[in-house]
Design brief:
The structure is a single chain. The chain is mainly alpha-helical. The protein folds into 2 domains: about 1-85, no CATH class; about 85-134, no CATH class. Helices cover about 55% and strands about 5% of the residues. The relative contact order is 0.11. The model is unreliable at about 1-30 (pLDDT under 50).
């Protein structure tokens, strides 16, 4: 990666993490960073990765490329700081892929309504049967 770094003083506006759940619930996303000092970083990407970033922004997953990279770096930082084992990291990646499959299905209108009352009644009934509770 080739790049240069300069200091940029001022409040960074409207930078949010990719919050798919909020998109599903149609709620506004909250900024993931609200700092007065940001650092500008210039990078060079292979064309394929640049196209991926642009498609993600155009699809509305992120407001802009800055938000995309802040989200990616934040997720990596969290992963490193959590100290996950390699097996745990693979499991987490698998869960994220599975969640994305579900989100993609919802985006295509393939979801169905959920009767939460019936779901929880069934869960309570199953618990009561397992533990002999009425």
């Amino acid at each position: 990666m080739v790049g240069s770094v300069t200091r940029n003083e001022g409040l960074m506006q409207d930078v949010s993490a990719h919050l798919t759940l909020n998109q599903i619930l149609d709620k506004p996303r909250q900024p993931c960073y609200n700092q007065t000092t940001m650092t500008r970083v210039a990078i060079q990407l292979p064309d394929e990765l640049n196209q991926f970033v642009n498609k993600s922004v155009q699809a509305g997953d992120f407001h802009n490329t800055d938000e995309f990279f802040i989200s990616v770096v934040s997720m990596y930082k969290d992963q490193v700081e959590e100290g996950l084992s390699e097996a745990e990291q693979k499991k987490l990646e698998s869960l994220r892929r599975d969640i994305q499959v579900g989100v993609d299905q919802l985006d295509r209108g393939e979801g169905s309504e959920m009767n939460w009352d019936a779901f929880f009644a069934d869960r309570h009934r199953a618990y009561a049967e397992r533990h002999g509770v009425s």
